Amino acid sequence: MGKAKKRSGKDVRHNPISRPPVQLPEDISQSIKIELPKNSLFAKLAGTDDEERRRAALTLVAACETREERREVLSLNGVEATVDKLDDAIDDVRLACVGALRNLISDEDEVYCDRLLAADGVGKTLTLFRKEMEVVTSTPVEKQTDEVIGVHMQTAEHCLLLLCSMCEVSQAAVEETTASNAPLLLTSNFESLLRLSPSLALAAAQFLLVISEDNDSVKAQFSADTLRGVVFGGSVDDATRVTLASTMVNVMDRGDIAVVVQPILDIIEKCLQTSVTAIASDVRAIEGDKAAVLRQMFGISHRTLELLANMLVATDIIVEDGEDGWEEGEDEEGGDESANVDEAVDDAVTEAIIARLLSSTLADSVLTLAVHTEERVSAIVQSVPTLDFVSELGEATVCKACDVMGNFGQSGVTSEAMAALLQRFRGELSTIVSRSFSSQQAMVLDASLRSLFGVYKSLIQVHRESSRPSDEFLKMLAGVVTTSDAPDGAREAACALLGSLASSFQEEGILRGTLTAFSTALPAAPLAVATEVLDALFDAFAEDDFNHLLGEAGSIPALEQYVPHFKTLIQQGRKAVDAELIARAKDAHLNLRRFIKYKKSHM
């Protein structure tokens, strides 16, 4: 208990940004008006008139752009009707149907994906991809122009991105796609894809990254030599290089990663420096399609930060300690945590990476992207209001940069250089937390709080006195905990951090403020927040030195009255929330009764 938990709900495997919903080409969107009822649209899509079918398919793309429209399409069995036309004889129909399916599951909603899987969406999408690529590759090189193969290339690219979306949402899609040997097909032909189209190669790289995450069964389908050749070659753009490098880290054994650590860090450092420079540039000076350039710029930033995070995890730099909760009479199992830290830090690869992180510009680049991206995004939108979509891309970049800063805090390294770096991270993360809370940026608040938890925890172990939180910061944390309209994930993270600080410092002022915040938040808190509040409360008041604070606040009688309500929350949440949260809540319910019994006998 006391550890910041991952966000509850479904596990989205990978979330690369710069993958916008499929839009109609401008000339088509202006000429087509969505006036038909959706059932009439699907009737035309199933018809025999080629032009009516084409226009219905193109209209369907636009008819799947909003959440309300997607729900209507779902209710009319539109997923199944659209999948059926993936083998249509008309090129535009196939392209539009793949695009519509991408839009349909853009909410990352399992319902849409389940319907797509039930309609053999994976199999039919892979079949379509292979057929489109056969057309492309069988066309003589001198005739491979956009006019001849353009629509086939676009359709193949959208097929790969549709598979990406499905695999992000559904483990069943991952398993079916892995069994199809699609990763082997793409890996062995990747250099050919690069020659044909950079955007198609990037889509293939994104798919390979998604399918390789936490998927040991797919490793045999990857050729390490092919991946290394592309990643460290000179003919690939940064976005594809970084994405494939992440895939390589996912599928390589730790010993093989050791061989490529330094070259990958070279790539990360170069791309992060490029990102910092690009984000600071004047958007008005961008030539050509500003929106496309900005999507690419933020996409590279996000992917590079993700690659760095993957490197830290894959090379055992992040020390995963156990959850040190309160339970009466319970002894922790699992051995001495310091021994685990020493084992990780003594590893030669880990030492090499840590040295590189501390001596290079990597950490500075991460810090810059975390702190200044929001400011630059505001400047971009003010300069060119039509580019307001970059707000979401910038928010995702800040969140990922915060994540990486939090990963540094879990490194287990106790050197003065690391302590100094963590002090910088703590100061900037605290600023980001305060700023995002006041501006109601839910994603950033959640990410920065969770990262700050790791940074503080490490600092407390290494430099206890210098890591003491200010009264102002503690009040801000208490504000997040007690604000009912703050996002649940952020409230959970704030609870965990506040409880950890109170537990670590064991000072009356901090404990009193923590108890007040928890007592205020608990009665009306949803299940996830209530569980985190109780876990943090048990940690903070595990010892008896400050039982008088519990007595002064009337906490034990209030907790006794709360027990039945918490049990009801658990019962109500059985079908509405994930099993992991229910298990944690049950543990908290058991510990709550033990905590009350123990404190009543010692006060």
Task: Describe the protein in words.
The chain is mainly α and 603 residues long. The protein has a domain at 468-603. The chain has 30 helices and no strands. The chain has helices spanning 26-31, 38-45, 50-62, 67-75, 78-84, 91-104, 110-118, 121-138, 146-169, 171-179, 182-188, 190-196, 198-212, 224-231, 238-251, 254-280, 290-314, 337-346, 348-359, 362-383, 390-409, 416-438, 442-462, 471-482, 488-505, 508-521, 527-540, 547-552, 555-573, 579-601. It holds the Pfam family TPR_SYO1. Residues 1-24 are annotated as: Disordered.
Short structural summary:
The protein has 603 residues and is mainly alpha-helical.
* Rg of Cα set: 26 Å
Mean pLDDT: 83
Q: Give a short account of the largest sheet.
A: none
What is the element string, with H for helices and E for strands? HHHHHHHHHHHHHHHHHHHHHHHHHHHHHH
Dominant shape:
globular
Tell me the number of helical segments per DSSP (H or I, 4 or more residues long). Answer: 30
Region (Disordered): 1-24
GO molecular function: unfolded protein binding
Family: Belongs to the nuclear import and ribosome assembly adapter family.
Pfam families: TPR_SYO1 (PF25567)
